[in-house]
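Re-running the complex after MR caught last week's input typo. The corrected sequence lines follow. Everything else is unchanged.
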Amino acid sequence: MPASERYPEPAISVDVVIFTICEGALQLLLAKRQRPPHQGKWALPGGIVDLREDLDTSALRHLREQTSLTGVYLEQLYTFGNPSRDPRMRVVSIAYYALTPAARLSAQINLEHNRLRWFTFTTRPNLAFDHDAIVDVARQRLAAKLAYSTIAMQFLPERFTLPDLQNVYEIILGRAFDKRNFRKHVLALDQIEETGEERRLGNHRPARLYRMKRPGQVEVIK
Amino acid sequence: MPASERYPEPAISVDVVIFTICEGALQLLLAKRQRPPHQGKWALPGGIVDLREDLDTSALRHLREQTSLTGVYLEQLYTFGNPSRDPRMRVVSIAYYALTPAARLSAQINLEHNRLRWFTFTTRPNLAFDHDAIVDVARQRLAAKLAYSTIAMQFLPERFTLPDLQNVYEIILGRAFDKRNFRKHVLALDQIEETGEERRLGNHRPARLYRMKRPGQVEVIK
DNA sequence: GCAAAAGTGTTCCAGATACACCCATGT
DNA sequence: ACATGGGTGTATCTGGAACACTTTTGC
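Corrected-run output:
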């Protein structure tokens, strides 16, 4: 017996808040809507979940299809189901958020036909549907997770410097940290190690490069 | 255009993990399945979301209809969407968890026709569908929230003693706390106040009764 | 030599931990 | 009087916060 004969069914979609840190700001990747409703407005990448597709898989697929991004950190955020959140029909959306290093952007995304654009979190336009609320929840979750996980390193390339990492914290949490205390803290977590290499960049002392001891894994700390 | 003409639609359900603390143990309320699949197995209360019904509202409605419980603390937990989690059809389930004081149980729930029963968390049977996984995630979330919120008080009646509260923590986290340190800690949070009353119970010194300063609100602390 | 960012240690404070005895009650 | 659980204070430890100067490089 097919579903449609049993219950009136809402549609199921996934929406993905894609964060990166670039040019000293938290940025998110948005897609301009090509059709009504909200035609011309910016919205989160995402779409309908296939009937035989896992939710995480669907989020990754829409991410790949619409932005060419792969290999990002992805986590389920919250499910938004207000009956009037989409004017056409009932759509329940499982929201995800994804983090990616800034380095990947130019390589993987061609920002095809200006349908895709990065916006800084603070200067983004008003979004379609309830996507403003989704983005706000995502940022709150991200900020909370910085305190008790190694999630911040998902914004950085494989090798990074301690000032890089400190920047991630300062941008997302919106306040400055003491350099010495910060270094002491993250090194005490025993999650990163020196590579032995340095990065020379500009008229100043080179910075040591570090790497995660367990690359790709987001660990709960403390 | 109705949904069924556009996409093959998964069904949407809510499932609710209902926790209480009773007789020194964390307990959860389960319903015996009356029909296939998994007929005769125990499962979480829940059901299909109405087409024009908010998700939270749906969870509260199924809770009320199936268990008579109202006024509980309710929070969205996670969304489970494995395509084969229900053998009949694709069902995406938004899982919730609810907390209620033990005192309400006898009053509100008649455990109608033995279809409903409380089980201790540790001795519960294997559940229908993927409900074992849902219950595990709920317990993890609950334990994590004890550390940084006032959620524990949702297990207690309006007026409660400090040993009551300490019991909640010890049962959920599975370890003992020092009585003096515990009292110092929770009083320093400035979330509860003395009522001036005492509870005499048994052959020993009466315990002071406290109440939440903002009843019903779960506050993030520290 | 100078500008610019990287790197480094110590002191202080607050919150967490460890720990043992007296109190009020009912029987 | 005694059994039962409720209530109290201090010393110590540990992790976080505050704080300023030296190092290395490119120009």
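None of the earlier attempt is carried over here. The longest helix of chain B spans residues 131-148. Chain B has two domains: 3-145, 151-212.
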